[in-house]
Amino acid sequence: MSTFKAYFLEGLDHILDINGYDHILFVLALAAIYLMRDWRKVLILITAFTIGHSITLALSTLNYVVIKPELIEFLIPVTIFITAFANLFKKERDLKSTGSMQLNYIFALLFGLIHGLGFSNYLKAILGKNSSIVMELLAFNIGLEVGQIIIVLVFLVLSFIFIDLFGLKRRDWVLIVSSAIAGIAVTIMMETKFW
């Protein structure tokens, strides 16, 4: 198997691994306010997240940025909570307005920086002392991006089923999903070794 394919699969497996559900929760918190017809916006959103985490993933993997893992383990659920909590205050009319959703793009990019630091410990472990990591980083990030797109696609299908087929109000869907994610994020925060 080629090196590119191996690292692509590592990135894909890492984001889709249920044990790494914190990153899945963040992607779902970002996507919670969107519908299937918003797929282009969601793709841009997920790509903004990938850009954010790619920057710190590279900097941390190359040891240009070193932050205690315990702090990152705490900050990741904080980003999930903030994103999900912000969704709770979006009114029905806000969900239909493009301008009010811009905050999620900012969350995706900025909070992606924190998530990249979380990915870096994993990537450092599998890279070892490899002197040239550009291709490996690229492949890993593309794998993460594809995994995130799969997660969002499944979520958008679920939102279509509940909202468009079963008639659940969009606002109620956002409240249910975002409340559950915020609650799980608080639990993760409390379980970190940061305290």
TrEMBL record:
Name this polypeptide is given: HupE / UreJ protein
Keywords: Membrane, Transmembrane, Transmembrane helix
Lineage: Bacteria, Pseudomonadati, Bacteroidota, Cytophagia, Cytophagales
Protein origin, superkingdom: Bacteria
Membrane-spanning parts: 20-36, 43-65, 71-89, 101-122, 142-166, 173-190
Pfam families for the chain: HupE_UreJ_2
Organism expressing this protein natively: Marivirga tractuosa (strain ATCC 23168 / DSM 4126 / NBRC 15989 / NCIMB 1408 / VKM B-1430 / H-43)
